[in-house]
Amino acid sequence: MSDIILHHYDISPYSEKVRLGLGLKGLAWASVKLPEIMPKPNLTALTGGYRKTPVLQIGADIYCDSQLIMRELERRYPAPSFYPAGQGAADALAWWAEKTTFSPAVGILLAKKPEVLPQGFLEDRAKFSGRTVDPFAIKAALPNLLDQLRAHFDWLDQMLADGRQFLQGSAAGLADLAAYHPVWFLRLNLGSSAAPLDGFPRLVAWAERLAAIGHGRPRQLSAQQALDVAREATSIAKATVDPQDPVGRKPGQTVSVTPDDTGRDPVVGELVASDVHEIVIRRSDREIGEVCVHFPRAGFVVAPA
Ligand SMILES: N[C@@H](CCC(=O)N[C@@H](CS)C(=O)NCC(=O)O)C(=O)O
After folding, report:
1. Which residues of the chain have pLDDT under 70?
2. pLDDT given at position 136
3. What is the CA radius of gyration of the chain?
4. Distance, CA 268 to ligand 1 centroid (Å)?
5. Does the CA dihedral 108-113-116-118 come out positive or negative?
6. Where do the domains of the chain lie?
7. Could you give the CA distance from residue 55 to residue 70 in angstroms, rounded to a whole number?
8. Which of these, 169, 203, 202, 174, lies nearest to 186 by C-alpha position?
9. What is the SS3 assignment for 224?
10. How far apart are CA 114 and CA 300, in angstroms?
């Protein structure tokens, strides 16, 4: 089986979710470090324009978004499972937790300690989010960000109130990893004794248990080597019709796939396969030839192109 290649950078919270996922499954993987800000020419050669972090590559198959990355890791390496307490609730919990806590956590750091972020970060993230960057507005938003995060952290904390080790019981799973990464980001940059984490010692103890999972067995790979892997491999995707597709999409149609929140860069390609949670499109790149790019359905807009 081809190597797992993770394109990521150290301070990326969503990457930490996947790194811990690789650790939970005890996997060996190749680490390709991405720049923290645009341009990312080697990444966009693989994805066709998607710029977010992380991206998983296995041969000539490119998996965008941590939601789908985790799903694919679970499909290929089912044990130990990301779903020790079943699937639906874990996926819903994961979606709520990271969607509501990631952005306030980043906002808090921008307001309190912008100097720890790389040069050009603010300007890059203004383009990324489609909002203007005003350092005064960022500072003014801080009290509300702290209030919001405190309320959401309290819900997480209440889930641990019966003494359980992890959100859904005695084993860590996807819900924990998704809820954890914004907490990790705050602890890494501001410590556990800064608001709003200071009010939640139980949550901090949970975070320590998750950190102990580790990252599995990474080894370094250059971006060029990853491109070589893609060029030499053939995608595993097979043309598949989704009989339940609500608008009758079919393999062979040209579509664009675009995140619906931030980093809204469309990727255009030929539809190969799709189902309720995944869409796969084939595209050709001058440097690496044909690759298949996989996206989740929740959170992505698929349109005819
Ligand atoms: N829904 C995406 C969110 C990914 C995301 O927003 N990642 C941040 C870094 S943690 C990002 O892409 N920032 C801009 C960049 O890295 O270019 C996922 O689950 O992977």
Report:
1. 1-2
2. 92
3. 19
4. 20
5. positive
6. 5-80+218-304, 88-211
7. 11
8. 203
9. helix
10. 30
Dist CA 221 CA 29 (whole Å): 9
* φ/ψ (deg, to 5) at 173: -150, -170
- What lies within 8 Å, CB to CB, of 99 at 6+ separation is none
Give the pLDDT of residue 135.
87
Asked if 255 and 31 touch (Cβ cutoff 8 Å), the reply is no
pLDDT of 218 reads 98
**Exposure of 91 in the CB half-sphere (CA atoms within 13 A):** 11
CATH of 5-80+218-304, one of 3.30.420.40, 3.40.50.2300, 3.40.30.110, 3.40.50.450: 3.40.30.110
Measured from the Cβ of residue 118, the count of other Cβ atoms closer than 10 Å reads: 12
Centre of ligand 1 from the C-alpha of residue 162, in Å: 33
- Report the separation in Å between the CA atom of 142 and the middle of ligand 1, taken as the mean of its atom positions: 21
Sheet holding 61-64, edge to edge: 217-220, 28-33, 5-8, 55-58, 61-64, 289-296, 278-285, 267-274, 254-259, 300-304
User: Which residues are near ligand 1 (CB < 6 Å)?
Assistant: 12-14, 51-53, 65-67, 128, 262-263
Q: Which architecture characterizes domain 88-211 according to CATH?
A: Up-down Bundle (1.20)
Rounded to the nearest 5°, which phi and psi values hold at 123?
A: -65, -40
Distance between CA atoms of residues 44 and 50, nearest Å: 6
C-alpha distances out from residue 5 to 166, 199, 260, Å: 28, 38, 25
DSSP letter for 193, please: T
3-state secondary structure of 238: coil
Residues in the chain: 305
Query: How far apart are alpha carbons 37 and 261 in whole angstroms?
Result: 18
φ, ψ for residue 258, nearest 5 deg: -140, 135
User: Ligand 1, from 52, 91, 106: best to mutate by most atoms within 8 Å of Cβ?
Assistant: 52
